[in-house]
From TrEMBL:
Gene3D superfamilies: Periplasmic binding protein-like II. It comes from Limimaricola soesokkakensis. This is Bacterial extracellular solute-binding protein. Belongs to the bacterial solute-binding protein 1 family. InterPro entries: ABC_tp_sb (IPR014597), Bact_solute-bd_prot1 (IPR050490), SBP (IPR006059). The lineage of its organism: Bacteria, Pseudomonadati, Pseudomonadota, Alphaproteobacteria, Rhodobacterales.
Length: 573
């Protein structure tokens, strides 16, 4: 059963939605469990007990209509089309779950922060905003909320210990500011069938002098991209032009996330330290010992315009121009994501596992075997020449429920009930089968995913491995994510289009970031947590210090290295 193909109206009828005015209803809960929940981490008895709690807790809010918002990905489509009408039938709380672009979600949140107007009763926004929420204190601190005002609407079986991403949504003060709803990582994606083809393997080794395999570093990735771009794969039954790389380059908000989502740290721009480089993180922003930002440009000890950052952008633009389909330069994140499933792409270094659902669906026949098993696999992304052991290895998105202080208490309570419903253990296994974005350990370990693992190209092995904690979102160095994030796509877009060199674009970016940081410092609105900017110095002073920013290497082409997928996957098992 594909739940997303189910008609919302049909589900509503099955749950009794159309029967009359909204009211809390255990009969609707039983129908929901019968109709929708085939797989769960809870027993049927436990599921019914959890649903009864929702029925009882929601009674004071029956008849209320609330509005929530998230970005448009498969997981949230399942919530909006299947879980929202079910929740309404069970609790009597009607939910309008809007699906919009991620940039629009951040814009709405920013507007609510600035105006105090209650635009949405709850947001699913990335945990990348943790530094913003912690400093501005405009998001409800959920630790205190669950123990205080929200205690009567907090599920006693929420089981926070079961969530795998709470470290990403907890501030330095130890308080929880957001509740994870979906998580996905950016990993390396490649055509395993092409990489293990005898002719391709022999030809590659003859040309490059080392085995074709999963690239460990960017030098090997580049060789593989060059090898497959324009290669004749007719001996494998592949027709049409093929490419060794996939990416996107349109001047759009999603282009900024492409880089703040750890591309720079994978290149080796920042400092060692997990989950984020310290004192210089993957945005190139430096903080002091009190977690206060002190600079972004090299002249203040930052690394946003450092030699390693320039190297990162130059590799991006070079690969986009030479090894990706020509149309990629004009694509956004969401437009480019499904392209590898069309069957013409050899590898993608920066591939979000959120697109796994597209890789196993009806439109992915070109990358699936006849038995439905994948011709592709996922693996850790390779690292750049400036990268050192102990540095951040990749990005993990944690889209998380956020309640704003500007939302009236009764509406926040009703929205909190919905947030807990769509993340509950009753529904989470089923939701995860639809969207493949895991938030609970009990779901990841569920036997149904052991059974499905061979179809998912390494996704389950990754999420069951101890390695998964090494992939992390943006950390707390970023004091105002909405203001700073919009600077990235505008400036990187200039480098992507060729309007500026990488150095020129990054000089502009770090200067603009520092202007925002200086305004925050002058305003003093973040108190002792806000920026305290370093004085500018000769950049060479900072380049001579240990760690980031790092001086330019004489040779940025390291010895290429690959590893067999079979050997690599053993480390995940």
């Amino acid at each position: 059963m594909n739940p997303l193909l189910k008609s919302t109206t049909a589900l509503g009828l099955a749950l009794g939605l159309m029967a009359g005015p909204a009211m809390a209803d255990m009969e609707a809960a039983i129908s929901f469990l019968d109709e929708e929940i085939e797989r769960s981490a809870l027993t049927r008895e436990e599921q019914e007990a959890e649903m009864q709690w929702f029925v009882d807790a929601a009674e004071p809010f029956s008849g209320m209509s609330i509005n929530v918002v998230s970005e448009t990905i498969t997981t949230h489509e399942y919530e909006a089309n299947v879980l929202a009408p079910a929740f309404a039938a069970i609790t009597g709380i009607n939910v309008t779950h809007d699906l919009i672009g991620e940039g629009d979600v951040v814009e709405k949140l920013q507007t609510q922060m600035q105006s105090g107007e209650n635009i949405y009763d709850a947001y699913i926004n990335d945990s990348d905003l943790i530094g913003t929420h912690w400093r501005y204190q405009q998001a409800r601190n959920l630790t205190d909320w669950m123990a205080g005002e929200g205690a009567d609407v907090t599920n006693p079986n929420l089981n926070l210990d079961d969530f795998i991403g709470l470290q990403f949504t907890t501030g330095p003060d130890g308080k929880l500011y957001q509740l994870p709803d979906q998580q996905f990582a950016n990993l390396y994606w490649f055509r395993h069938d092409w990489f293990t083809d005898e002719k391709n393997m022999a030809d590659f080794e003859a040309e490059y002098g080392y085995p074709l395999g999963v690239p460990v570093n960017w030098s090997a990735y580049e060789d593989i991209a060059a090898f497959f771009t324009g290669r004749d794969l007719s001996h494998m039954g592949v027709s049409g032009e093929v490419f060794g790389h996939m990416d996107y380059g349109k001047k759009d908000p999603s282009l900024g996330w492409r880089f703040t989502d750890a591309w720079m740290s994978m290149a080796g721009m920042g400092d060692k330290g997990e989950p984020n480089g310290l004192p210089v993180d993957e945005w190139g922003i430096r903080v002091n010992e009190n977690s206060q930002p002190v600079g972004s440009c090299v002249a203040r000890g930052g690394a946003t315009n450092s030699p390693a950052a320039v190297y990162a952008i130059e590799k991006y633009t070079d690969w986009l121009q030479n090894y990706a389909p020509p149309a990629a330069a004009g694509m956004t994140f969401s437009e480019s994501g499904p392209v590898p499933a069309q069957g013409q792409i050899a590898q993608q270094m920066f591939w979000y596992t959120a697109f796994t659902a597209d890789m196993v669906g009806d439109g992915a026949a070109a990358v699936l075997n006849e038995d439905g098993s994948p011709k592709w696999r996922m693996a850790p992304s390779p690292h750049g020449v400036y990268w050192e052991e102990g540095m951040k290895v990749g990005y993990q998105d944690a889209g998380s429920w956020t309640l704003m202080e500007s939302t009236p208490v009764d509406r926040a309570k009703a929205a909190w009930l919905y947030a807990q419903f769509v993340t509950s253990q009753t529904v989470d296994v089923e939701k995860s089968h639809a969207g493949l974005t895991f938030i609970r350990e009990s779901t990841i370990q569920h036997p149904s995913f052991t059974e499905r693992a061979p179809e998912l190209g390494g996704l389950i092995e990754f999420y069951r491995s101890p390695d998964r904690v090494r992939w992390s979102p943006t950390g707390t160095n970023i004091p105002d994510y909405p203001k700073l994030a919009q600077l990235w796509w505008q400036n990187i877009g200039d480098a992507s289009s060729g309007a500026k060199t990488a150095q020129e674009a990054l000089d502009s970016l770090c200067e603009q970031q520092e202007q925002v940081l200086e305004r925050l410092e002058r305003a003093g609105i973040q108190g002792d947590l806000g920026p305290v900017m370093n004085e500018e110095q000769d950049p060479q002073y900072w380049l001579d210090q240990p760690g980031a920013p790092k001086p330019k290497l004489e040779n940025e082409d390291e010895e290429p290295e690959t590893i067999s997928y079979e050997e690599l996957i053993k480390s995940w098992q």
